[in-house]
Design a protein that fits this description.
The longest helix has 23 residues. This protein has 17 helices and nine strands. With 466 residues, the protein is an alpha/beta fold.
């Protein structure tokens, strides 16, 4: 494909998200993630070039090249030694998903045993808690494979979910490539799961959160205290609960939410959520399995992925007998947003609007007369035949047919192109009334109105096609 394509999906589920049909008719699915990273962070003991500097209590922390950082290490150690157990006591009766860094899990046998005893899902959080941004593709692919292997060895079960967190531009594709995961979570793009096609792989994405996340205690624009965090979690829950049919993710870290003042705020939030009917607390694995069963992915022809010939063959007649509009639209920037009726219509209409006056007039002249001789002879396009039949223009009385022929002739003589109206928006009587009124307009006004009608016809046709 040699035309510009924009790969980001800025449309998603759109204005009307699908009903997730959560189990038991729940209004909201609440998903708690506990990140277990302690012992997998950057550390020269782990063969890394410098100490960790991310998500800690140390303001403005910087990596210490080729040196251990005792303060940083002790903060991470708190998460393993104390924070994890506080959160385990607090949430041991809830379905929790652990994002487990494989090398950290290998250094935490007691914690892994406790996770399993609580029935928590242990998803993969990669091999090490380090940046993948500049990692060569082959190295990152090998790291994902080793993360799966080590995770399985340590926990006894292969992970079904994956979240890197410090990912590269290739991480999602490489994780999908393995075919090992029921879901990936390196996305913050939605309040509901969604599907992405990676080659032949249909990969479910269960998006995560960075806002309802205790990481905001460790950044400058974060929460100053537990009360602020609790209020934000409650407000997030209340909004999603009121909307209904949504998923709320809450992100926790042993060394952050495991601190006493924050754990109390978390306790109050959980009490708030538990106090509502229709709340499904679920692991991400359970959400993924439910979504895959309820909303399985169905592959379809996507306009933005079509080659030029296929695109023009399919959409060249959307603007009547004007395939040049589809040709130019295909050569422009298309992406997932254009795989919907609204999006593709916008791409085609932009070409029509920016065409020369003579080109637009040619598109108007390409339209047939309403109930004219071509219709009587059965020579309309399939789309025009269907549209005219939808309001009974194929079943006129002799008097009605004579009226249309007279109006058609008068309109063309005055304006130089056929009378155009999106017939599906009107009744036969309304069309006749509009016909009579619009003949008396000046031609520039009629050109503008006809162009609006042509765009409306195109939109209705695309809704049928897509």
């Amino acid at each position: 494909m040699d035309a510009p394509r924009y790969p980001r999906d800025m449309h998603g589920h759109g204005a009307n998200p699908p009903d997730p049909a959560w189990p038991g008719g729940a209004r909201i699915a609440v998903q708690i993630v506990l990140n277990y990273e302690e012992g997998g962070e950057n550390n020269v003991l782990h063969g890394d070039p410098a100490s960790e500097a991310f998500l800690s209590e140390i303001t403005g922390a910087q990596p210490w090249p080729e040196m251990r950082h005792a303060n940083m290490e002790s903060i991470y150690e708190y998460g393993a030694r104390a924070g994890f157990w506080r959160l385990h006591r607090l949430m041991g009766d809830l379905p929790v998903t652990v994002y487990g860094v494989a090398s950290a899990l290998a250094r935490a046998p007691a914690q892994v045993e406790a996770m399993r005893a609580a029935g928590w899902e242990i998803a993969s959080h990669g091999l090490k808690w380090i940046e993948h941004r500049d990692m060569p593709e082959a190295e990152e692919r090998a790291a994902i494979a080793e993360a799966i292997r080590l995770h399985t060895e340590v926990t006894g079960t292969a992970p079904r979910g994956f979240y890197c967190g410090r990912s590269s531009e290739r991480t999602l594709a490489l994780a999908a490539e393995t075919g090992a995961f029921a879901y990936l979570a390196d996305s913050y793009a939605d309040d509901l799961p969604y599907w992405v096609e990676y080659g032949a792989r249909d990969q479910l994405i269960v998006p995560y959160t960075l806002d309802a996340n205790d990481m905001r205690f460790a950044i400058q624009a974060g929460h100053p205290d537990g009360a602020s965090w609790e209020r934000y979690l409650r407000d997030s829950f209340d909004c999603l609960y009121r909307e209904g049919g949504r998923m709320m993710s809450v992100g926790l870290h042993c060394r952050l939410a495991g601190r006493p003042g924050r754990a109390e705020a978390l306790r109050r939030f959980l009490d708030h959520a538990r106090g509502h009917e229709g709340v499904w607390f679920a692991t991400r694995e359970a959400i993924a399995d439910h979504w895959a069963a309820t909303h399985p992915h169905v592959r379809r022809d996507r306009p933005s992925a079509m080659d030029r010939a296929a695109f023009v063959a399919r959409f060249g007649g959307v603007f009547e007998h004007s395939p040049w509009i589809a040709e130019r639209a295909w050569a422009g920037e298309l992406g997932p947003v254009h795989d919907t009726p609204a999006g593709l219509h916008n791409a085609l209409a932009r070409v029509f609007r920016t065409a020369s006056a003579e080109e637009r007039l040619g598109a108007l002249r390409a339209h047939p007369d309403l109930a004219g001789k071509l219709a009587a002879a059965g020579r309309l396009t399939e789309e025009s035949t269907s549209e005219q039949a939808s309001v009974g223009l194929d079943l006129l009385t002799n008097t009605e047919r004579d009226t249309f022929e007279e109006l058609n002739g008068a309109y063309v003589r005055k304006h130089g192109f056929p009378f155009i109206v999106a017939v599906r928006d009107h009744t036969k009587a309304e069309i006749l009334s509009m016909f009579g009124r619009r003949i008396d307009n000046d031609t520039p006004a009629e050109i503008a109105e006809a162009c609006r009608q042509v765009e409306r016809i195109a939109r209705l046709r695309l809704e049928d096609m897509l």
